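Hi there. Long-time user, first ticket. I'm pasting a complex I've been working with (about 627 residues overall). I'd like to know whether the download I got is complete or cut off, because the file seemed smaller than I expected. Thanks.
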Amino acid sequence: MSRITEHPILGVKEEKKLVSFTFDGKDLQGYEGEPIAIALKANGVMIHRYTKKEHKPRGLFCAIGRCTDCVMVVDGEPNIRTCVTPLKEGMTVQTQDGVKAM
Amino acid sequence: MDRYEVIVVGAGPSGLSAAIEAAKRGLNVIVFDENDKPGGQLFKQIHKFFGSKEHHAKIRGFHIGEELLAEAAEVGVEVVLGATVIGLYSDKEVSVRIGEEIKHYKGDTVIVATGAAENMVTFPGWTLPGVIGAGAAQTMMNIHGIQPGKKILMLGSGNVGLVVSFQLLQAGCEVVALVDAAPKIGGYGVHAAKVARCGVPFYLSHTIKEAHGTDQLTGVTINEVDEKFRPIEGTEKYFEVDTICMAVGLSPMSQLLKMAGCEMEDNPKRGGQVPIVDEYGETSVSGVFAAGDVSGIEEASSAMIEGKMAGVCVCGYLGYITDEEKDAELLKLEKDLESLRQGMFAPKNRGKLIEKTEEGIDISMNLLKKGYVADDEIERFPGVVHKVGVHPVMECTQNIPCNPCQDACSKGCISIGNNITCLPFIKEDSNCINCGMCVASCSGQAIFLVDEDCGDGTATVTLPYEFLPLPEVGDKGYGLSRNGEKICDAEIVSVKSVKAFDHTNLVTMKVPKEYAMKARFFKCS
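Hi, the file is complete. Here it is re-exported in full:
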């Protein structure tokens, strides 16, 4: 999905520092401090996890840390709400399957 | 266990307002909020607010948020972020999860301002990635600067659905349809009209039948419903979309109050499970107050006043102000709140079908069903008049508590009348100088400056424009009707962007004079 480079009301976003992270082993980039989910979205990632019983895909839904649809395995720890967890250089992000990494 | 005179739960508009009132009178106040930034949902609100000066009218929500934070800092309000309140007990003990720790605090008073959570509706495919809440869309585009999707269907025509649809257009997304199962648009007509004139079709009495896709959303089928909300077979319509936004109401997040033993009720007019409170927000548990959406869904402007009331009340409760001082403050706040709760969208009118304005004029049925006032309906409203030379045309057709237009005109051309909800009209002997302040001040973007006859067979229409790219003088294109259809050729003759307009640019287009009262938007060819 596209980042908004210039907004009619909010203007031009101040440039933040680009950092690298991995998503399921792939090298991706995002802005430091933005939610992991936003960096993933900017890279076109829609599926964050699969449900345990029925193996159904889930993605970003509420974006404010309430619904838990967007939880993933981050730096080895499962159930991390990626919509409210800031991105840091070198993070390892993995699609979650049930309660573990895929 | 640390003790505070006032513990506020939630650093949104209501909680911060409450904390400011208490802190500025010398109480020691602490505010807990689970988010990593204060301000609640205010920073996602990029539209201009309604109301009057006291309600921060014509100021954009995020600017109100900045003002609140500055005021809170000035009076020394302590805000703890990343702090989730997980327990509230009847003796006003509060358990807070901060990081991996759980801490306990004791309050002499507690103000719960936890706000509301979004409602959802379910349909086959609703769990697919790509189906999101309208709040999520706002968070993505207005806070994090990313488009929620490219092609979007909005479900819900209340103010949230309408405002977020407009914001999606501002973010460069395409809104393919605005759908609501109700037979009439729930939000302000002016919000609907600014979406409709961009060409977004409204489907009232429609709901989502099914969302399509295996790994992610690829499309959606809607169908019409009858008066009992049963699907009507054969009315299916398919849209290719990558995103569905749901804006189907809010529910108070009142669990903490229930936990504290406050008397609760199910009140559909307030949005669900709410505490029973007195007129200033005190619950059945002495010293525990509720303010903002948690005690009944309204909007940020009223939440701020309710917060102030609770703040004043705790000052009185703890003896920091006399009863006389408290009553005087509350009386003033009550007046502000009462003026916001007027008009056809007032809480007391929820669910009622209102067919006439306070002035006795028939409401535009087209506005309620399709999002725009039809050409043959617009002339009956008092803000729509014909005059020689440039003059304002105010397409304000519903009684909403709002009056910035009246104050915006330095020549005194515009009057609201005695009541803040009345429809604006042009005073008889007025002399418009074409300054455009009224156009930029109208939070509903419903005012246009029109010169119906420039003498050469053309007319000019000045309209509010909040999109990019901004047209330039000499640009040729089309005049769009109130429902976004191309109806005539148009050429841009003036573009004004001054600081006082606060990003509402004034674009003037020249159109054939027979379209002076019909063309309301511009599209570049």
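A couple of notes from our side: The CA atoms of residues 21 and 90 of chain A lie 5 Å apart. The interface with chain B takes residues 1-4, 6-10, 13, 34-35, 38, 41-42, 46-48, 56-66, 69, 83-84, 86 of chain A (CB under 8 Å).
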